[in-house]
Amino acid sequence: MMRLMLALLAALPLFAHAGQLAQVASPDGRNVVQLDINGEGRLAYRVLRDGKPVIDDSRLGIQLRNGRELLRNLKLDAQASSSFDETWEQPWGERRFIRNHYNELRTTLVETDRDHRRFDVVFRVYDDGLGFRYEVPQQTALQRAEIEDEFTEFAIVRPAIAWWIPAGEWNRYEYLYNHTPLVEVSQAHTPITMRTADGLHLSIHEAALVDYAGMWLRRSDGQRLRAHLSPGGVQGASVVVSTPFKTPWRTIQISESAGGLVESSLILNLNEPNKLGDVSWFKPAKYVGVWWSLHLDTQSWATGTKHGATTENTKRYIDFAAANGFRGVLVEGWNVGWDGDWFANGWGFDFRKATPDFDIEALSKYAASKGVHLIGHHETGCAVSHYERQLAEALDLDQRLGIDVVKSGYVCDAGQIERQDSPDGPVTREWHDGQWMSNHHLHVVQEAAKRHIAINPHEPIKDTGLRRTYPNWVSREGARGMEYNAWGDPPNPPEHEINLVFTRMLAGPMDYTPGVLSLTGRGGKEIQSTLARQLALYVTLYSPIQMAADLPEHYAQHLDAFQFIKDVPTDWFDTRVLNGEVGEFVTIARKDRNSAQWFLGAMSDRNPRTLKVPLDFLDAGTRYRAEIYRDGEGADWHGDARFRFKRETREVTRKDVLDLWLAGGGGQAIRFVPLEH
Ligand code: NOJ
Ligand code: CA
């Protein structure tokens, strides 16, 4: 390995920048990272692809509150290179096997003056991008770090446009995406996706956010972005840690095509392997539930005449799930605490007590008798300390009742999470993506894992690939989901879900809750989608748990389209992005993990288009029955044309090329079933 590494380095061309201290290239040699220290002893890195600069000299360092910054008077004390290449298996996911192949450069920096503090910067360079992180060892001069911020920068060289949502604003992550020149970004969440004028796609994000604050990106000048850590609440500094510690990986994904970003496994590869052992107790599956009616406001979370979570109504959903092969039934509003103004007031919630009209014991037995599992719901209303105090007992109850997936919720404005360290202590405020919440979420996930329960948080901290390490952290929200089509102003426009594929979804699975075939929100408001598009979402927006979000009575009106929702799996052997441009269109093909079937989903923005799709992803020597669910003639995302829909079948092989016609706001979903020989 080492010899291969040296051979690669020797083969690299010389670069314009003279005097770099250290350098490392990706296994294919195309991505190169160079490190430099300037006259003031300040460390910087730059990135080149195919010999051309992508990231210009960008500063590295840490700003401390309890000490001098780690930034200047640095010298390179040591460097070590290594290579790694292994293929690992996901217990569930968008593909079964993932290759983790990188070259690593570890640099040890030491201050030349005063305290002689030291730290490492570690780079891992892949064919699809790179990650780097700071590792600060235990040392007398730095035993405890109060991290105010990072100096980490990303100076994008070539003129670029960006798709981004604001960070540090009133909402958490539930925004429509801005599509602007990079020079118009203010402060953005990650993942942020960029395309340079010459067509290179970049995404900056982070991996393995553990016991640390989430990274926001603040544009400092021109196309230079700087890390800004989510604020620290009552602890003051954004991060308070003892040495030794490691920061999360700062990641840059690089691809000529937009789809290359989606196919990249960089974020997962930079996370630690599974710490939970056998997690076969988690079953990827679809679910239904008492949910859309609450957002339509035809039923309520609160008790009373409109209460959705009644024993009788839940039985109806259990019957519906059993009849149609859905494993889960989510019931929101099942517990005490929803009466009155629950939004941002979670102090009345009790996840150990059902409302009197919800017979949780009888319902879980009834569900079990039909092979169905209730899905738990813990809406905290942001009273997070209050939630933590009852967490163990609440999860014990779930475990006893066979509830093995819990959806949680953190509804309040950004920065309004309520923390109370002791029952009579003061209540202070935290950010959804601060260090305290990064620890909270992992605490819940680990407590749940002990009881073989999977977690799906809404209003969560962003995904940084921790599902690799804790595979019971199965999905989350963390973006503008289907709920906005019930009451949002505006509802999600046609390009939104395509933006999600190339931005939010790079972080990991999303519980978008697709499949609203009635295409109508609260008070008759039109959802900006065709019928076929709702089906395509099951393939294009990956999650191992997928909701069939509409009401049973609405599915009864669209049984032909509903068949696809019944047939589509939620666990995949392989995933291919067949085409796509950010915000415009995308086609994704996935192979079922448990059969030889393939599925395809395609979506268009507000413009109709025809996409030529070669079926060369299908297995050789196999004939398939293609069950095609497409936009009907004249379909469009307005008015009755939303419902124009056609279902047809034809025989195909991998040699065929399909012309997918997509309406404006439309989509197409196809199931490929191998035919007997
Ligand atoms: C917001 C979540 O995204 C939604 O799915 C849920 O129904 C409500 N909060 C109530 O918990
Ligand atoms: Ca939400």
Describe the structure.
This protein has 677 residues and is an alpha+beta fold. It contains 13 helices and 39 strands. The strands form eight sheets. Strands 6, 7, 8, 9, 12, 13, 15, 16, 20 and 21 form a ten-stranded antiparallel beta sheet that branches. Strands 1-2-3-4-11-18-17-14 form an eight-stranded antiparallel beta sheet, with no helix packed on it. Strand 2 (31-37) and strand 3 (43-49) form a beta hairpin. The model is unreliable at 1-18 (pLDDT under 50). It binds 1-deoxynojirimycin and calcium ion. The site of 1-deoxynojirimycin has 9 residues, from loops.
Shape: globular
Our Rg estimate from Cα atoms comes to: 25 Å
What's the count of strands?
A: 39
The ligands bound in this entry are: 1-deoxynojirimycin, calcium ion
Helix content: 10-25%
Describe the SSE topology:
Elements: H1 2-11, E1 22-25, E2 31-37, E3 43-49, E4 52-59, E5 62-64, E6 74-89, E7 97-111, E8 118-126, E9 129-136, E10 144-150, E11 153-156, E12 160-164, E13 178-181, E14 187-188, E15 192-196, E16 201-207, E17 215-221, E18 224-229, E19 239-242, E20 245-246, E21 249-255, H2 258-263, H3 266-269, E22 285-290, H4 292-296, H5 311-324, E23 328-331, E24 335-336, E25 350-354, H6 360-369, E26 373-379, H7 384-400, E27 405-409, E28 417-419, E29 428-430, H8 435-450, E30 454-457, H9 484-487, H10 494-502, H11 531-540, E31 545-547, H12 552-555, H13 559-567, E32 572-581, E33 585-592, E34 598-604, E35 609-614, E36 624-631, E37 645-652, E38 657-662, E39 667-674
Parallel strand pairs: 22-23, 22-31, 23-26, 26-27, 27-30
Antiparallel strand pairs: 1-2, 2-3, 3-4, 4-11, 5-10, 6-7, 7-8, 8-9, 9-20, 9-21, 10-19, 11-18, 12-13, 12-15, 14-17, 15-16, 16-21, 17-18, 24-25, 28-29, 32-33, 33-34, 34-39, 35-38, 36-37, 36-39
Helix pairs in contact: 5-6, 7-8, 11-13
The structure holds 1-deoxynojirimycin (NOJ) and calcium ion.
